[in-house]
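Good day; I would like, with your permission, to put a structural problem before you. The record follows directly beneath this note:
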Amino acid sequence: MAKLSRLTEMVGQNSEHVHSMTDFLTSSGINNTPLHRHQNANSMVKYVAPVISLLCLVLQNQNQEHYFMPLPTQTQEAIHNLKTSLISGNNVSTYIHKALTNLWTEKWNKREDNPVPCPMEQTLALLILDKNGGHQEPHNVTGYIAKLEYCI
C-alpha cells in the first residue's frame, strides 16, 4: 500500500519513472487499465449485464415517449453511430467501445431540470429497484457497482 501511495504522489512529476515502477501491475501481459478492451473473455461474461442495461437505456433514450435523458451532442452522436452499426452489423464492437468510452469520460453536471444527468447513475438506480418499488439493500447493490467498475 505504501508503494501505491508513493506512486500516486509521483504522478505528474516524472511519468517515465512512474511508468517503469507500475510495470509490475501489468506483468501478466493482460492490460485491464481503464477504457481499454478487456482481454479475458471468460470473465467478461460475468460482468456485462449492467453495461448492457446502460447501453439499452441510452439506445432507448431516442424514443422520448418512455424515458428521456438529455445527452450532450457528442454522446448523442456516439449512441447514434452505435445504433447504426447494430442495424448494419458493421464494426459493432468498435462502436460499443466508443459509446462506452464517451459515456464514461463525459463530465455529467447536475442541473435543476436534470438532477441525475449521468446515464450510469440512472441505470444503477433502475437496476436496484425491488419488485415492491423500493430499493435493494446496500449489500445487494455493491455487485452492480463492482461489475460496472470492472468493465470501465
Observations:
- The chain has two domains: 1-30, 39-151.
- The radius of gyration is 18 Å.
